[in-house]
Amino acid sequence: MGIGGGIKMAKKHIISYSGGLASFFEAKLAIDKYEKENCQLVFCDTNTEDEDLYRFLNDTEKYLDKKIVRLKDGRDIWDCAFQDNFLYNSRIANCTVYLKMRLFKNYIKQFNPEDIVIHIGFDFTELHRLERTKKHYKSKVESLISATTLTKQNMMSELDKLDIEIPRLYKMGFAHNNCGGFCFKAGIGHFKQLYLKLPQLYDYHMNKEQELIKQIGQDVSILKRVRNGAKTNLTLKDLKDEFVREGTQLDMFEDMDIGGCDCFVSYDLEEEE
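The structure corresponding to this sequence follows.
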């Protein structure tokens, strides 16, 4: 009971629903623990998503029996980069700020920060991301899945048991189901996967990178290569030329370099205002 005998209202649990495996299981755990009527799923669309992600949203929306709030800025990730006149890379990628963080933050402004709990699906290997994310919000930030030992392989097995089709990017071996298999923060090994599995999409991003390099007028690239202690630019065109000429065999470190998504973790200058 609240003060004066009033009923204390249950907190609203707002789940950032990316369309990935971890966000689905975070939503499922939250609904099981806090009840469906106290949970809200929010999807921020980057306009760069794989078509099958929307199928997964629809399928899981039916399974969870919970309508997903879908937010969209209208731009895609390359629109953001061209407008910033900056080629995003492993250090800076404002697309996540513009197309995810700000949309999500604007949505939750309708609530008193003390009345909501924000859920983001970071698994037990991503506790460092969870801690960084907490700094961006006045509300409590929680990740139920981080307290489990679920791996992506476990999650895919569980999806099969629930009779929900696994998103096709996971089936192809991609680490995430966001931005259509692309990410400015991805590593060389990830782009090898994109080249092998989705060559037309690789060419699309390769051409976009070349267009933006021309607009900027500087020697820049998404990727960097480090050999013998020296760091050099590596454009997607350079990497494709290398694959065509020499095959896709990379050294062990580059092959394992898939990079890391920074969505909901990146710093936003607007937070200083």
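Strands lie at 12-16, 39-45, 68-72, 116-120, 140-142, 223-227, 230-234.
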